Amino acid sequence: MTSLSIQIRDRVTGFHRSYWRPSTVTFRRWALASVVVNAGITVTGAGVRVSKSGLGCPTWPKCTPDSFIPAQHDSHSPFNMAIEFGNRLITFLVLAVGVACLVAAMRLIRTGGARGRRDLVLLAALQPIGVLAQALWGGLVVRTMLNPFTVSVHFLLSIAMIWAAYAMFARAGEGDEPPRPLVHRHIRTLGFVLVAAVGALLVAGVVVTGTGPHSGDAAASRFDFDIRDVTQLHADIVWIVVGLTFALLFALHLTDSPTRARRAVLVLFAVELAQGVIGYTQYFLAIPAGLVLLHVLGSTLVWIFALRVVFAMRSRDPVPAGSEPLEPATPLP
After folding, report:
1. What is the mean pLDDT of residues 246-260?
2. CB-based contact 234:205 (threshold 8 Å)
3. DSSP string spanning 200-267?
């Protein structure tokens, strides 16, 4: 056997062992992959909308009445069909990663690699279940001709899946001990309020999207709101989120909280400022498609980094010798 053959055999064998007997490190990589693919399909979904390809495949589950794949159709161009069908294909990637996370979590628990983290199986199971729910809801989006309500829920379901994926990623990197806070109870509460505000910001964002341009297709309906009013509401919530983030950062520095918590909030604050620049720029430039994609990516990153803040303010590692927990923590996944 040649040296190259031995290297290939060792790599294949190593991958096989790491998958079927995963460590917390390899499982965490799967969880991170789930975060990435869920964020990715959220952005590509926005690409479908801004390219006017929302009804590129006018039927579901088939792309056209007679074919599961793009075929000649009088009312839609091949470009629009390719964009919409490509986004449908990415769903299978998200599903594959989700199933891999579930299998890895089950194997990890079974082999004793995470005795106190059986919640990983639940969080991993939410991935394939969420993909199936998204696929069915996507069919409803097509059948309702891109009704803004169904489109909005489609996006928010992706946001919920990102939450489950990130919770799985964060939990995989923790120990098996009960959760304990690393910051004062009131500061931790402020962190939860911040995450809730970011959630409200995302809801306001989909209302603005469902009211303004870039509906996904000329036949799509719109929310019957005044675009100036919903845009102003969205901007107001942005300033609330930024203010809460600054307040949390100030409180963490004032109380000399752990570095990882302060760093998490500082990164979130920087992402929020960048997202604000993109948001105001797209508004004054009449919402160009390219900036809309960047804005959706920014929204997704703000959500992910807001979740990171909450998990950075707790620990499940053993309590260091000579120290006491600040107070009992509220159990989280």
Report:
1. 94
2. yes
3. HHHHHHHHHHHHSS--SSTT-----S-HHHHHHHHHHHHHHHHHHHHHHHHHHHHTT--HHHHHHHHH
Q: By CB neighbour count within 10 A (0-12 exposed, 13-18 middle, 19+ buried), where does 200 fall?
A: middle
Q: pLDDT tens digits for 267-324?
A: 999 999 999 999 999 988 888 988 999 999 999 999 999 999 999 999 887 655 544 5
Beta-bridged to residue 181, according to DSSP, are 314
* Amino acid identity at 127: Q
> Do 246 and 273 contact (CB within 8 A), yes or no?
no
What does pTM read for this prediction? 0.88
Query: DSSP letters of 47-96?
Result: HHHHTT-TTSS-SSSSSBTTBSS----TTS-HHHHHHHHHHHHHHHHHHH
In sequence order, which residues have a C-beta less than 8 Å from that of residue 269 and are 6 or more positions away?
242, 245, 246, 249
How far apart are alpha carbons 66 and 59 in whole angstroms?
A: 9
| 39 shares its domain with 66 | yes
Statement to judge: residues 154 and 114 lie in one domain: yes
In-domain check, residue 135: yes
Contact 83, 51 (CB under 8 A): yes
* CA–CA dist 196, 128 (Å, integer): 25
Residue 328, SS3 per DSSP = coil
For residue 172, tell me if it sits in a domain: yes
Same domain, residue pair 262 and 285? yes
Query: Among 24-28, 220-224, 318-322, which stretch is predicted with the lowest mean pLDDT?
Result: 318-322
Count of C-beta atoms within a 10 Å radius of residue 204: 18
Average pLDDT for 231-256: 95
* Residue whose structure tokens are 């997202």: 275
Residues 54, 220 contacting (CB under 8 angstroms): yes
Structure tokens at 176: 């098996």
